[in-house]
TrEMBL record:
PANTHER family: FRUCTOSE-1,6-BISPHOSPHATASE-RELATED (PTHR11556), SEDOHEPTULOSE-1,7-BISPHOSPHATASE, CHLOROPLASTIC (PTHR11556:SF35). One of its GO terms (cellular component) is cytosol. Pathway: Carbohydrate biosynthesis; Calvin cycle. This is Fructose-1,6-bisphosphatase class 1. Keywords: Carbohydrate metabolism, Cytoplasm, Hydrolase, Magnesium, Metal-binding. It catalyses: beta-D-fructose 1,6-bisphosphate + H2O = beta-D-fructose 6-phosphate + phosphate. It comes from Leptospira sarikeiensis. GO terms for molecular function: fructose 1,6-bisphosphate 1-phosphatase activity; magnesium ion binding.
């Protein structure tokens, strides 16, 4: 960034400007975001130190609610986000990938009007290999009465009702991509002053792209529609250029690259074994927030049956779904392969 410091906008300034556009805004959302950003900076600091400290890399002796190995950084990130956010006075309840049940506000702390569903550290199987990982979050307004403890139903709301969604990618730099209802903005953490600075205003996903991202090792498990689509985009029939495969295995990093460069990401369901019959990714804190960001950046997000992700009615906290997301023309092309 070569702009003079007086021309730069920090995330705090950005949030206050957004708040001032809404005469009815109370400042609660801005305050909630500042607590979330504090926790993200702490996680970013720990990720940057990984490898130096013995107690950060590697696995714990536990598995999470999904039956997956819990990494030490997973556990650390879960603790810092849930501790900070449940005590900030603006949430009524929280949900985390790492915790089976909803997380209540501890006794003695103010109960607020928002909910957050979070994947504290996504892509954690990549931690030990120094590959980009991330945090994904989704914010809703509660539906149960104000002032009472929040309930599961406050979290089980459609993606289209999200008040905000975002992700933090701990990559070659730490970046926060945020949608506060309308439009998408990207902020890069300046480690010298500890602030997220607006580096990517009004982000738009290219209308089409030349990248596809999918775990192709699962090919034999897919439906014929998904197989036909993947064969088609790799085909050179008629002199076409095949698309490039890029798959990191960290949703945040794969999504972020496709947002910037254009492309499509798919995680279909497993039709031949019982491992992921509904897909692997979780609706509330992985898929729905990414879908809001994609749509607000001009892209599309659907299930493998072609249903709009933001219209899905969640029934469970850790519900899984299939996910096809990316540039508008690429997702539309995918939809032409689905049987009517
Ligand atoms: P996690 O939440 O346990 O890290 O799992 C989610 C991750 C996503 O980041 C990524 O897109 C996907 O799992 C990769 O799965 P696979 O290894 O099956 O390709
Ligand atoms: Mg995850």
């Amino acid at each position: 960034m070569s702009a003079h410091p007086t021309q730069l906008m920090s995330l705090s300034q950005y949030l206050i400007e957004e708040q001032l556009k809404l005469p009815q805004a109370t400042g609660d959302f801005t305050a909630l975001m500042s607590h979330l950003v504090y926790a993200a900076k702490v996680v970013s600091r720990e990720v940057r130190k990984a490898g130096l400290l013995e107690n950060i890399l590697g696995a714990t002796d536990q598995t999470n609610v999904q039956g997956e190995t819990v990494m030490k950084l997973d556990e650390y990130a879960d603790k810092i986000f849930t501790h900070t956010l449940t005590r900030c006075g603006h949430l009524c309840v929280m949900g985390s990938e790492e915790q089976e049940e909803i997380i209540p506000i501890p006794t003695g702390y103010k109960i607020g009007k928002y909910t957050i569903a979070i994947d504290p550290l996504d892509g954690s199987s990549n931690i030990d290999a120094n590959v980009s990982i991330g945090t994904i979050f989704s914010v809703h307004l509660r539906t149960s009465p104000q002032g009472t403890p929040g309930v599961k139903e406050d979290l089980l709301q459609k993606g289209s009702k999200q008040r905000a969604a975002g992700y933090i990618v701990y990559g070659s730099s730490t970046m926060l991509v945020l949608c506060v209802g309308k439009g998408v903005s990207g902020f890069t953490l300046d480690p010298s002053c500890g602030e997220f600075i607006l580096s990517h205003p009004e982000m738009k996903m290219p209308e089409s792209g030349g990248i596809y991202s999918i775990n192709e090792g699962n090919y034999d498990y897919w439906s014929d529609e998904v197989k036909n689509y993947i064969r088609n985009i790799k085909s050179i029939e008629g002199g076409r250029k095949p698309q490039s495969l890029r798959y990191i295995g960290s949703l945040v990093a794969d999504f972020h690259r496709n947002l910037l460069k254009g492309g499509i990401f798919l995680y279909p369901n497993d039709t031949k074994s019982s491992k992921y019959p509904k897909g692997k990714l979780r609706l509330l804190y992985e898929v729905a927030p990414m879908a809001l960001i994609a749509e607000q950046a001009g892209g599309m997000a659907v299930t493998v049956e072609g249903k709009r992700i933001l219209d899905l009615e969640p029934e469970e906290l850790h519900e899984r779904t299939t996910f096809v997301v990316g540039s508008k023309k690429e997702v539309e092309h995918f939809l032409t392969f689905i049987k009517k």
